[in-house]
Amino acid sequence: xxxxxxxxxxxxxxxxxxxxxxxxxxxxxxxxxxxxxxxxxxxxxxxxxxxxxxxxxxxxxxxxxxxxxxxxxxxxxxxxxxxxxxxxxxxxxxxxxxxxxxxxxxxxxxxxxxxxxxxxxxxxxxxxxxxxxxxxxxxxxxxxxxxxxxxxxxxxxxxxxxxxxxxxxxxxxxxxxxxxxxxxxxxxxxxxxxxxxxxxxxxxxxxxxxxxxxxxxxxxxxxxxxxxxxxxxxxxxxxx
Length: 240
Prior knowledge:
By secondary structure, the chain is mainly beta. It is built from 3 helices and 14 strands. A 12-stranded antiparallel beta barrel has the order 1-4-5-6-7-8-9-10-11-12-13-14.
């Protein structure tokens, strides 16, 4: 997530989502409810989120862990290094997610979750929470909506929408594209659009090499000077 030079110090309920995630993980660990454990990791030349860099264009190391119950309930944690405005002293991000995912029909799947974005190293409060829903068709096309009453820790509401698709070219190579729009009128008196197009090469399981080009509109450049615009990132990623 991006922050301009003006940083909110509004206090949000920082422990609600982590505690809920812990409770869900404990529930899934019971003999009556088996759980599947998965993980991911990535080394990337830039951490780009919704079109804007979260590391001032510098590399990032990222890792995640997810536990999913047979009934579709899941809890996940994901982390990365970040670099925001100097006065925030932000150096790390930890996302805690609880949600449900499952198939609706043979072709359609749904994921709904609550994600808490947490920045433990900061001297100001940047933590916030967002509700996200993603509808997927045939595992290759998706529509996503997100909403927060405290978007980007601003104390104001914001909504986000994204449409995306994967285009398999072979067993090892695919293209991925997405376009998004972030409504931030209440928080910043403006909104912005972004798009991305990438190629992913699954050269040796579980490793993949990804190269993604990002672009934003002028509003994004005004909202987040130096963080938005056109950029390319490359990443070595793995899921296990």
